[in-house]
Design brief:
There is one protein chain. The chain is α/β, with parallel strands linked by helices and about 375 residues long. It has two domains: about 210 residues, TIM Barrel (Alpha-Beta Barrel); about 120 residues, Lyase, Ornithine Decarboxylase, Chain A, domain 1 (Beta Barrel), CATH 2.40.37.10. Helix content is about 30%, strand content about 25%. An eight-stranded parallel sheet has the order 8-7-6-5-4-3-2-9. Strands 10-13-16-15-14-17 form a six-stranded antiparallel β-barrel. The protein is elongated, with a radius of gyration of 23 Å. The two termini are about 20 Å apart. Bound molecules: pyridoxal-5'-phosphate. Pyridoxal-5'-phosphate binds next to α9 and β9.
Length: about 375
Amino acid sequence: MSSVAQGPIRAVISRRAWQRNLALLRRTAPTSRMLAVIKANAYGHGAVEAARTLSADAYGVARLGEGLELRAAGITAPIVLMEGVFSPDELSLALEYRFELVVHSRHQIDWLESRVTTAAVEPIVVWLKLNTGMNRLGFNKVEAPVVAMRLKTLKIVKEIRLMTHLATADESAHPLTARQLACFTAVSAEIPSLRSVGNSAGIIRGAKTQGDWVRTGIALYGCSPTSERTASELGLEPVMSLESEVIALRDLEVGESVGYGATWTAARHTRLAVIAAGYADGVPRSCPSGTPVLVAGHRVSLVGRVSMDMITVDVTDVPNVAIGDRVVLWGLGLAVDEIAKYAGTIGYELLCRVTARVPRVYVD
Ligand SMILES: Cc1ncc(COP(=O)(O)O)c(C=O)c1O
């Protein structure tokens, strides 16, 4: 049924699937505490609802504003700013709202140091980021023990946790993971603290790539963190189903084309269904003809270009398709990972790019 004013498109979010995925991840990393990565509006699912639904041990966001939104909604659980703060002003707010901070660069420690001398604030947990081979953020193995000593002298720091981020945990045979782990193990011997290694891919690889704290994002949302196994093989359930409806039906003769650029031409008498879902909703324009779509539970093919608000699909082989029939772009019965392959990207990007005009409908 269409929601008034927003049309038929909606992202249906299953709380039960969310909780089950978290429970499965906890069983997979039974000795680790769980940081649920809910940055980017919980990968498009709604960060406030994520924090209300999941009972993780902490929540991770990438921007101060994302953390503030959670606090404004009454979330009191630990929240980690996963890139730390970007300015001294941000640090003031971060301290006021009791965020835990990743520290990856010296300038962030300078800001922490100067804060001690200017104000009395509650000490915080600092996640010291070690660069073991991802080469984005973090101190190298020589710097990290020195930095840890410096952090230990700061009254504002209640506890240091050592973390690193794996670049290739999604590929079982990639040699970089072993090198990253060796580096992390060597440095952590010099810095007694709780350790955090695994993202979703690290969690499913087993104890070596987990740590005292794991940081799970994509698996929580029911996607596979590795192309080597599907989400359903891993026992993960899709949390988001992007749904819409058939809004028009049309018959094409052989040789007639559809959509912008006339990129697809009927090779047989074709029944087309027009669906209210386009790239302004988050359906990638890069999805080619042949991308699967579920119409009334039947798997059919997208034909022609994705336009801003509509797509067209070939329903010739589906009996009795009618206006208002339910359509699934991805989710239950059609893995977002599969659609992402057609679009030349990964499930993460599709989920994050569901736009603001798509209502999120929470069920279960
Ligand atoms: C530092 C860090 N840890 C954990 C995660 C979660 O990764 P995933 O969604 O692959 O589980 C991310 C995601 O970008 C991250 O940047």
